[in-house]
C-alpha cells in the first residue's frame, strides 16, 4: 500500500510545522507526518522549515526560550504525531560541521528514546548528516533526499552504499527504471511533494512506498482511501 505523508503537517488547515498541524494531519488520516528540524543556540532540537524565524533571526543564534511559542521541540512533535510515523528532516546546510554533527546526534538520541512511541525515518539532503545519524544509532531508518536535477539512479546507489534504506526524490524523477532498481536494492521510495491527484495515483501504480503531500485528503481520495 502506498502511504500518505503530510508535508509539514496539515499546512492547509493551520500554520505548518506546528503541533496543531501535526494533530490535524493525524485526524485527516495521514499515515505519516513530515517535519523539519534545526538546532537552537542552547542545543534544543526545534521544528521549523527555514533557518530563520521571521522578525527574530537565525534559530542557531537564538536560545529556545527566545523562540515563539508556536515553534515546537522535536520531542513534543513526536508525542502528538503518534500513532503516525514521522519523517524528521534534518536541516543543517547553514551550520558549521560541529553544530551539524551535534544536531544529528541529538536527533538520533531523541528518536531512539521514543522508538516505542512513534516510528521515525530521518531524512536529509546532506549525506554526511545521515551518515552521522547512523554512526550514532545504526538501527535508525534513514532516507536520502535529492534535488530535481540529481540523477535518481545514482543517488539510489549512493544511499544504498552508505546503508540508508530509503530515497526521497522529487516526484518527477520517479519512473519504472528507478522503481525496479529500488526493489532490487530493497530501498523505499517516497517522492516529494505531490499534490496532483492523477500524479499520486500514477506513482502508486508504479509502486512507491509513500507520497509526501500538502493535500492529505486529496491524496487519500486518489488512492481510493477516502
Account of the protein in words:
This protein has a single domain (3-222), classed as Phosphatidylinositol (PI) phosphodiesterase (TIM Barrel, Alpha-Beta Barrel), CATH 3.20.20. 36% of the residues lie in helices and 20% in strands. The chain has 8 helices and 11 strands. Strands 1, 2, 3, 6, 7, 8, 9, 10 and 11 form a 9-stranded mixed β-sheet that branches. Strand 2 (32-39) and strand 3 form a beta hairpin. The relative contact order is 0.14.
Q: Helices and strands in order, then pairings?
A:
Layout: E1 3-7, H1 19-28, E2 32-39, E3 45-47, E4 52-53, E5 57-58, H2 74-81, E6 85-90, H3 97-113, E7 120-124, H4 127-136, E8 141-145, H5 152-161, E9 166-168, H6 176-185, E10 188-189, H7 197-206, E11 210-213, H8 216-222
Parallel strand pairs: 1-2, 1-11, 2-6, 6-7, 7-8, 8-9, 9-10
Antiparallel strand pairs: 2-3, 4-5
Main attributes of the structure:
single chain; 9-stranded mixed β-sheet; 8 helices; 226 residues; 20% strand; two-stranded antiparallel sheet; TIM Barrel; alpha/beta
Mean pLDDT, all residues? 97
Number of helices: 8
**Rg calculated over all Cα atoms:** 17 Å
Q: Helical residue percent? A: 25-40%
* The CATH architecture: Alpha-Beta Barrel
Regarding quaternary structure, what we see is single chain
Our count of domains comes out at: 1
- Provide the CATH top-level class: Alpha Beta
* Alpha carbon gap, first and last residue: 14 Å
Beta-strand segment tally: 11
- The share of residues in extended strands comes to 15-25%
Category from helices, strands and their pairing: alpha/beta
Low-confidence runs of at least 5 consecutive residues:
none
Largest sheet: 9 strands, mixed
The rough form would be described as globular
The CATH topology is what?
TIM Barrel
Considering the protein shown, what is the CATH homologous superfamily? Answer: Phosphatidylinositol (PI) phosphodiesterase
Amino acid at each position: 500500500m502506498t502511504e500518505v505523508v503530510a508535508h509539514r503537517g496539515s499546512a492547509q488547515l493551520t500554520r505548518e510545522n506546528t503541533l496543531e498541524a501535526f494533530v490535524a494531519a493525524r485526524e485527516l488520516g495521514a499515515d505519516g507526518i513530515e517535519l523539519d528540524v534545526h538546532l537552537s543556540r542552547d542545543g534544543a532540537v526545534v521544528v521549523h522549515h527555514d533557518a530563520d524565524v521571521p522578525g527574530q533571526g537565525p534559530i542557531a543564534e537564538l536560545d529556545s526560550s527566545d523562540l515563539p511559542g508556536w515553534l515546537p521541540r522535536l520531542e513534543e512533535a513526536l508525542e502528538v504525531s503518534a500513532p503516525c510515523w514521522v519523517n524528521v528532516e534534518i536541516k543543517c546546510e547553514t551550520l558549521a560541521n560541529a553544530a551539524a554533527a551535534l544536531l544529528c546526534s541529538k536527533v538520533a538520541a531523541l528518536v531512539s528514546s521514543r522508538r516505542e512511541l512513534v516510528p521515525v525515518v530521518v531524512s536529509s539532503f546532506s549525506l554526511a548528516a545521515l551518515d552521522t545519524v547512523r554512526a550514532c544509532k545504526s538501527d535508525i531508518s534513514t532516507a536520502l533526499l535529492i534535488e530535481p536535477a540529481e540523477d535518481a539512479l545514482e543517488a539510489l546507489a549512493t544511499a544504498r552504499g552508505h546503508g540508508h534504506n530509503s530515497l526521497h526524490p522529487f516526484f518527477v524523477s520517479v519512473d519504472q527504471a528507478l522503481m525496479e532498481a529500488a526493489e532490487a536494492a530493497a530501498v523505499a521510495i517516497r517522492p516529494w511533494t505531490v499534490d496532483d491527484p492523477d500524479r499520486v495515483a500514477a506513482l502508486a501504480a508504479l509502486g512507491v512506498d509513500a507520497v509526501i503531500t500538502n493535500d492529505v485528503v486529496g491524496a487519500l481520495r486518489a488512492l481510493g482511501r477516502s
